[in-house]
Specification:
With 562 residues, the protein is α/β, with parallel strands linked by helices. Helix content is 33%, strand content 17%. It contains 15 helices and 19 strands. The longest helix is centred in the last third of the chain and has 21 residues. The chain is globular, with a radius of gyration of 27 Å.
């Protein structure tokens, strides 16, 4: 029995019920004194100081802050009475992931569009030139679509047309041709050495290169001839191409995971991961994992982690919820989500509650993307620059892991393919050239918010969210706190791209360690403005043409000084 944790939960419940907790604080102090007897001489005085603080505060709120202090919890766990320990008969595997699995900031670009010269195919050396820009914007993970040779047979043309010209580069996801496959690099991007030099240079700036792994082949991939048993053949003698109705991918052939030769298929696919790990890659974004066998992912990820526990796998699966959850249980560190289509206050609150308060909290780690090369949602198309800023701020403050596809995002591109939620003149099918030095308001906000994310531990977790009541459905407000550092944030966002809105927001004072009637100072980390608030209900007004959000940090009273 963990007597201290049991006591702590009990005193919190009694406080929330409005009961007197003075006796409970004395009981807690006695537990701390008992623990001090098990401390070394140097630590004993500090432990006894906690006991004194529990019984000498001038208010129940202040006493509760001491009782729930993370440092006290750490001390009490370390000094627990080990004579009360028992051994559970069943043994469980424990996996400890690296920090980047829980807090990361992704930026996606097409290396072939990195050239400064119009019409010229970009290279890894061109991307290396862009690394300072990526770092300055605050991203720590740079993700590339597949970098392998691209199929020539059934190659797609501009805007996914079935007929390609000689100048069309094809889709990077149509992997493989006569020059190589999944363990080779597209010759126009550069050499393996160029790629490894890029990884090293990026790492020097605190950036990891994330590689796309798409387990599929172009019709002229060497695998198709070498291992025909790995594919599903149709009566007309062709291989079944990939489909995701209404989309058709005539240039892509999926593997048949029900092949009788599945063991050799699994071994070969795992060897692809091992090959790129050996070349320096530690982050993989897996394309459409829901179309492959769950058992394969459990085996492959498990085997990789035995030798390389630092490797991160992101599941790109926009599919049914239970399947996405099953993939997370199979071992994926992070998962794409439905955030892209959650826009209203009700939708966002319900979805975040599902992610953070249900059993999903224990196995599904979300990564929020407001756009992808495949997805230009109507919210961005219709809302323009204001919507881009709003959706970015939501992604970056709701989730500790987020990503965006650029530079179309920071440039505010909004033109879709007619009748589709997809960018026109899509980089998936053609080279694009960008003015990488161009300034935009969206880029400035991205840079500022990424700095705020790094400096505020409350944004390093997805699970610590608490929604606040507002008097306007166009204003969403949520609280994020980090008890260890005392960092406390109040985020308010205007969900309307076109109109200024105001609201009263109800602040959970008890949860923030603020006494009723007490004034407290908040600083807007986006603008630098300061506001002095008091009591539960406080006023916000947000103009989407100026800034659609507040990221307010509570600076007084100081939670650590109480």
């Amino acid at each position: 029995i963990d007597h201290f944790t049991t006591w702590k939960k009990g005193i919190v419940k009694k406080y929330e019920a409005g009961q007197d907790i003075s006796t409970e604080l004395q009981i807690g102090a006695a537990l701390v004194v008992e623990a001090a007897a098990r401390a070394g001489a140097k630590e004993k005085t500090a432990v006894l100081q906690f006991a004194k603080q529990l019984t000498t505060q001038d208010s129940p709120e202040a006493g509760l802050l001491v009782a729930t202090n993370d440092k006290l919890a750490d001390v009490m766990f370390r000094l627990r009475d080990k004579s009360l320990l028992t051994t559970y008969p069943q043994i469980f595997d424990l996996e400890v992931e690296i920090r980047r699995a829980g807090f990361s900031t992704w930026y996606e670009l097409f290396p072939r569009s990195a050239s400064a010269e119009s019409g010229k195919h970009g290279t890894f050396k061109d991307v290396k030139r862009l690394l300072p820009r990526v770092a300055e914007m605050g991203f720590d993970t740079l993700y590339f679509p597949p970098i392998h040779p691209i199929g020539e047979h059934k190659r797609k043309g501009k805007n996914n047309s079935l007929t390609a010209t000689d100048s069309d580069p094809g889709s990077p996801w149509a992997i493989g041709n006569r020059t190589g496959g999944h363990k080779d690099i597209h010759p126009e991007l550069g050499t393996l050495k160029d790629f490894q030099d890029l990884i090293k240079a990026a790492r020097g700036l605190g950036i990891e290169i994330a590689m796309d792994i798409a387990y599929q082949c172009a019709p002229d991939h060497p695998y198709v001839k070498q291992f025909p048993q790995w594919f599903k053949w149709r009566p007309d003698g062709t291989v079944q191409y990939a489909e995701n109705p209404p989309k058709k991918y005539e240039d892509i052939l999926p593997f048949n995971f029900e092949t009788e030769d599945w063991e050799n298929l699994w071994l070969e696919l795992r060897s692809v991961i091992d090959y790129w790990i050996d070349k320096g890659v530690t982050v993989f974004r897996i394309d459409n994992p829901h179309t492959k066998a769950f058992a394969f992912w459990e085996w492959m990820i498990g085997e990789v982690r035995k030798t390389n526990p630092e490797v991160i796998f992101l599941a790109e699966a926009f599919t049914r919820p239970r399947i996405m959850e099953r993939l997370a249980k199979a071992g994926f560190n992070q998962s794409y989500t439905y955030f892209t289509w959650r826009n209203t206050k009700k939708e966002i609150e319900e979805y975040m509650t599902e992610l953070t308060k249900s059993e999903m909290r224990y196995f599904f780690r979300p990564n929020f993307w407001p756009n992808t090369p495949d997805i230009l949602p109507p919210e961005l198309t219709q809302g323009g620059e204001n919507a881009h800023i709003r959706r970015f701020i939501l992604a970056a403050t709701l989730s500790s892991n987020y990503g965006l596809y650029g530079p179309v995002y920071e440039f505010g591109f909004t033109e879709p393919m007619p009748g589709k939620e997809e960018y026109i003149d899509n980089e998936k099918y053609q080279l694009r050239n960008w003015d990488w030095e161009a300034w935009t308001k969206i880029k400035e906000v991205i840079t500022r918010v990424n700095r705020i994310r790094k400096e505020n531990p409350a944004l390093h977790s997805t699970w610590n969210i608490c929604f606040a009541e507002t008097t306007n459905e166009n204003i969403i407000c949520y609280i994020k706190t980090d008890r260890r550092s005392g960092n406390r944030l109040i985020i308010a966002v205007n969900l309307d791209s076109y109109n200024t809105h105001s609201a009263q927001v109800k602040i959970p004072l008890k949860d923030l360690g603020i006494q009723s009637g007490q004034q407290f100072l908040v600083r807007d980390l986006l603008s630098g403005d300061k506001y002095r608030w008091q009591d539960e209900w406080n006023y916000v007004q947000l103009n989407p043409y100026e800034m659609p959000a507040h990221i307010l940090r509570i600076e007084q009273p100081d939670i650590q000084s109480r």
